[in-house]
Design brief:
Layout (H helix, E strand, L loop, with lengths): L2 E6 L15 E3 L3 E3 L3 E6 L2 E6 L3 E7 L8 E7 L12 E7 L2 H15 L12 E7 L8 H13 L3 E7 L5 H8 L7 E6 L1 H12 L4 H4 L4 E5 L5 H9 L6 H10 L2 E11 L2 E5 L2 E5 H8 L9 H12 L4 E8 L11 E11 L21 E7 L4 H10 L12 E5 L1 E6 L5 E3 L2 E3 L4 E13 L2
Parallel strand pairs: 2-8, 9-10, 9-11, 11-12
Antiparallel strand pairs: 1-10, 3-4, 4-5, 6-7, 7-8, 13-14, 13-23, 15-17, 15-21, 16-17, 16-20, 17-18, 18-19, 20-23, 21-22
């Protein structure tokens, strides 16, 4: 059962917010373009980038010495700071109508509604906190992220999960007409639950269009890393929260996995063999945080075994030459929908979030332990693809028939060992994008 926490609406005085900018700017000197809020101060032209603004709000008269004004909250980039920091600007207006018009116009620009002059209500977000993700820092990380959301033009409510499958069941039956986005404070496994909750609804075709945001609190966080990396943003929970607050939306491919009469949906990866063993068994080392994967991968390589199965790749172009169905002994299959399997593993550098393709990495029995160790250590930069024995294919999907009951994992979550058919569903889901 989800523990529901109170509804939050943004205020202008969040806890621990820094002082507002000292200057008070008159809207008589203010102009707005598609990209900037511009004014002149002491004969100097100044601006705020629209992409840095997260909200504009009414401000108390007392803060403007009996004037009428509003505050604009921004999170600009700084060359000296990897994390964006809150900066607030004060604007004074001649009357209430002018103030209302400016606040509406600025907030509409944030929502990419620059042509609309009508009031648009703030986006409504349902936030799910998985307190057991990663090293169980979800609640602490959300306390930091919450301040960003309170400074932003959003409403949000918060629910905390109590057991595995909790989020999936809640998403499956919730009234999505009451929200404009779903946000997880967790890892890729928590995102997996949200996606499968959406895809198992009767109205899944419209439900899967609900944007998903991630505040990274897992040990891997491949989806969040991919989104921030592609936008040129440092990997950081606050930067991820700002992306959600700004509300830009990007299509993302899904992975469809059929297994008999069962089906699953993922966004990150499908693994079998060595990688699946590491994904699943390393959970016993959660207390090590991000080191759990590296530590367990080292153990599995040192105690290396092979896995029997048959693999058939499905080409993007029917005339493309790729290996026929191959039966034999393998060390691993690692199919990636995104470039980053974790924030420190650039497993499939050629992958994109919405290109209708996946990257399948195969390693056959016979590769030495030393070469495997080199490959894993090179994964952070994507140089593992240059190591002999690593086969990489860009495909539309694949079929896998495990022969000896080996583990399978989707987005790091275990599924029964049985033959599977895997294919890409291009651009089916939506994510909040920086």
């Amino acid at each position: 059962m989800l523990k529901i926490l109170p509804l939050i609406f943004p205020g202008i005085d969040p806890i621990n917010s820094p002082p507002v900018e000292s200057a008070v700017i008159s809207t008589d000197r203010l102009s707005l373009t598609e990209k900037d809020l511009i004014w002149t101060e002491k004969n100097e032209k100044k601006n705020i980038k629209i992409d840095d603004i997260v909200g504009a709000f009414v401000c108390d008269r007392d803060r403007f010495q009996n004037g009428i004004g509003f505050i604009v909250n921004t999170y600009p980039k700084s060359p000296n700071q990897p994390r964006r920091i809150l900066r607030q600007y004060r604007f004074t207006c001649p009357d209430l109508e002018t103030r209302s018009r400016w606040i509406t116009t600025i907030n509409n620009h944030i929502l990419s509604l620059s042509d609309s002059h009508d009031f648009t209500p703030p986006r409504r977000l349902q936030i799910f906190i998985n307190p057991t993700s990663g090293t169980k820092k979800g609640e602490r990380l959300f306390r930091e992220a919450r301040q960003v959301l309170e400074n932003s033009y959003v409403k949000f409510s918060v629910a905390e999960t109590t057991h595995p499958g909790d989020i999936q069941n809640q998403v499956k039956w919730m009234d999505l007409s009451q929200v404009d986005g779903l946000v997880v404070v967790g890892g890729d496994g928590t995102v997996y639950e949200v996606i499968n909750g959406l895809m198992n609804r009767p109205d899944w075709k419209t439900a899967i269009q609900t944007p998903i945001g991630v505040i990274p609190a897992g040990t891997s966080n491949g989806l969040c890393k991919t989104l921030l990396q592609e936008a040129g943003e440092p990997y950081d929970s606050i930067n991820a929260t700002i992306a959600i607050a700004k509300g830009k939306i990007q299509p993302v491919d899904l992975i469809h996995i059929k297994q008999g009469d069962r089906q699953y949906f993922g966004v990150l990866s499908v693994s079998w063999g060595l990688i699946a063993d590491v994904d699943i068994e390393s959970d016993k080392l959660r207390f090590l945080g991000s080191l759990k994967t590296d530590t367990y991968a080292l153990f599995k390589i040192l105690t290396l075994r092979s896995y029997r199965g048959k693999i058939s790749l499905i080409p993007i172009d029917p005339d493309e030459a790729i290996p026929d169905a191959i039966a034999g002994d393998w060390l691993l299959l690692w199919a990636m929908n995104l470039p980053w399997a974790a924030y420190n593993l650039n497993t499939a550098p050629d992958s994109q979030i919405s290109d209708g393709k996946m990257t399948v990495l195969l390693v056959r029995k016979g590769m030495s332990k030393l070469q495997l160790l080199k490959a894993f250590s090179a994964c952070e930069t994507g140089r593992h693809l240059n190591i002999p024995g690593i086969e990489s294919y860009r495909v539309r999907g694949f079929r896998l028939e495990p022969r000896d009951g080996e583990r399978l994992a989707i987005d790091g979550e275990p599924v029964p060992s049985a033959p599977v058919e895997v294919e890409i569903l291009p651009g089916l889901a939506r994510v909040f994008y920086p």
